[in-house]
Amino acid sequence: MSCESLEKLRLQLQETDEAIVRLLNERASLALRIGEVKHSLGAQVYDPAQEAKVLERLGDFNQGPMPLKALKEIFREILSCCRAIQQPLKVAFLGPEGSFSHGAALRGFGRSASFIPCPTILEVFRAAEKGLAHCAIVPVENSLEGSVKASLDGLVSTPLKVRGGAPGKGVPLSSFQGLWPGSGQAGLFPSPGAGPMSGLAQEKPSWKGIGGSLQHL
User: Fold this and answer.
1) Residue 115: strand pairing partners
2) CA 48, CA 34: separation in Å to the nearest integer?
3) Beta strands in the chain, from DSSP E residues, in sequence order
4) Per DSSP, which regions of 70-206 are E strands?
5) pLDDT by 10s per residue, the chain, length 217
6) Are 121 and 138 in contact (CB under 8 A)?
């Protein structure tokens, strides 16, 4: 390949990068308008079902050579950035940074969210209940001990509502697949009337333990 053709290709890359930046800002502007409509309707900013649809749809029109897995990772961060433009999201998790819960929170909410590490599962629940965080993520299963009792006890007593999660081995959270694959985490949100973060809730499901796992009824 000649130096001339290399420079020509690099120029095309530069033009493509400029087009990507322009389209990203166009998407961000649309997301901001959507956030304004959601606010007027009293709807929550974070919509895990809608975000899952966006990621799933990528496979319908991705023709490569970009691998679909890589494309989804890129779009998770785009979604996170656009969500942060609508409303900066604070997420409580069982710390410290680098823990499994932190990794699950990053995969679920992206790096544009703000993360609040908590030393105990109880404090994770309390952070969201008191409005210090918009939502919380807690482990419901681990590979050594199975289901996490503190989380299961918290799910029974908390006013928070389960909005999302991911199946870990032996944890059939089938209603919440696709947010944090393989993490064994459950995402929790304040219930209606629970304070300033109350716009993020759905109905609280019933739960029962089955052989050390957790099942949504």
Assistant:
1) 91
2) 15
3) 90-94, 114-118, 135-139, 141-142, 146-147, 161-165, 185-189, 207-210, 213-216
4) 90-94, 114-118, 135-139, 141-142, 146-147, 161-165, 185-189
5) 566 698 899 999 999 999 999 999 999 999 999 999 988 998 888 888 888 899 999 999 999 999 999 999 999 999 999 999 988 889 998 888 888 888 888 888 889 999 999 998 889 888 888 888 888 888 876 655 555 778 777 777 787 777 665 433 333 332 222 223 334 555 655 433 333 332 222 333 333 332 233 333 2
6) yes
Decide if 171 contacts 184 (C-beta within 8 A): yes
Contact call for residues 44 and 199 (beta carbons, < 8 A): yes
- Helical pair 121-129 and 149-157, crossing angle rounded to 10 deg: 30
Q: Delineate the domains of the chain, giving CATH numbers in brackets.
A: 7-84 (1.20.59.10), 88-216 (3.40.190.10)
- In the numeric block, which tokens belong to residue 150? 């503190």
Cβ partners under 8 Å of residue 4, min gap 6: none
Q: Which of helix, strand or coil describes residue 87?
A: coil
Tokens 């681990």 belong to which residue?
142
End-to-end, the C-alpha distance of the chain in Å comes to: 62
Question: What letter does residue 153 receive in the DSSP assignment?
Answer: H
| Claim: this prediction has a pTM higher than 0.70 | no
Inter-residue contact 182 to 166 (CB < 8 Å): yes
